[in-house]
Amino acid sequence: MTVPRPERVERAGIPARPVSPWHGQGPVVAMVALGGAIGATARYGASLLWPAQTGGFPWTTFWVNVVGCAVIGVFMVVVTEVWVAHRLVRPLFGTGVLGGFTTFSTYAVDIQKLVDEGHPGTGLGYLAATLFAALAAVWLATAAARRTLARRRR
Q1: Tens digits of per-residue pLDDT, 111-126?
Q2: Where are the alpha helices (DSSP H) in the chain?
Q3: Is the CB of residue 100 less than 8 Å from the CB of residue 58?
Q4: 97-115: string of b/e by CB count within 10 Å (b at 16+)?
């Protein structure tokens, strides 16, 4: 889908004026990029601290994805049910930082490498464990955040 980008906006009786990219989607794109750089840097740091062994279960990527999904669950409860966030908070932290931190592309590459290196059982186990753990993390974190908020409201 293409977003119309008129050079000038004309309204009834009001002279046309140039449209700044920072007035529309520009700030959103900038926040996603900034957050993505922060999240990807954190993920890279985790991979340096806890490198995966060749042919072994990729624990670092597994836990990065699980923790990231749990944080996404809590974050979404907070910004949708508790706090009226600025319009750039979700693109910065949700899409940018947490999207850059979690790494399902590396997850897919890890599975392919495990299979190619002759460890299909580990690859399939990793595939299933990550999917299950990531979904469980989002669900549990969301439920825990809602339960905590309900207790605080009493």
Answers
A1: 999 999 999 999 999 9
A2: 26-49, 59-77, 89, 99-101, 104-116, 120-153
A3: no
A4: bbbbbbbeebbeebbebbe
